[in-house]
Amino acid sequence: MLKKEIQLSRKITTQLLHQAQISPRAEVCGLIGGKDGIAVNCYPIENTASNPASRFQLNAKQHIAAFKQMRDNGEELFAIYHSHPSTPAEPSATDLDMAEYPEALYLIISLNTKGVLEIRGFHIVDKQALEVTLSMTE
Fold this sequence. Notes:
Blueprint: E1 5-9, H1 10-22, E2 29-35, E3 38-45, H2 60-72, E4 76-84, H3 93-98, E5 105-110, E6 118-125, E7 128-137
């Protein structure tokens, strides 16, 4: 069942924002592992897209390694994240087309909000984005 509200820890939120800030011209991407519906670990993955300024593609070897690490840690896929260096934190047409994990949360970090970083979450099912309310916990 898809949740309408998701809590992210300050630690995970800070990691995502930091990754986006240190790569302001290219989309950062990765996976988040969770236990019992709670995000616990961030797995940054190299973006191998031909145009990383406007698209992301998870490095295949690192993607597989992250799933193995999650399994080894007793985690499941909680979220897939990426940044939008120059567009809002909402799924693009490409994001909708490429979404392959309907059970996962899709987190998008935007750097395009006048100096204020923004993270929004979505469930993407059948190429439709359903926004999820995000709240931060300690």
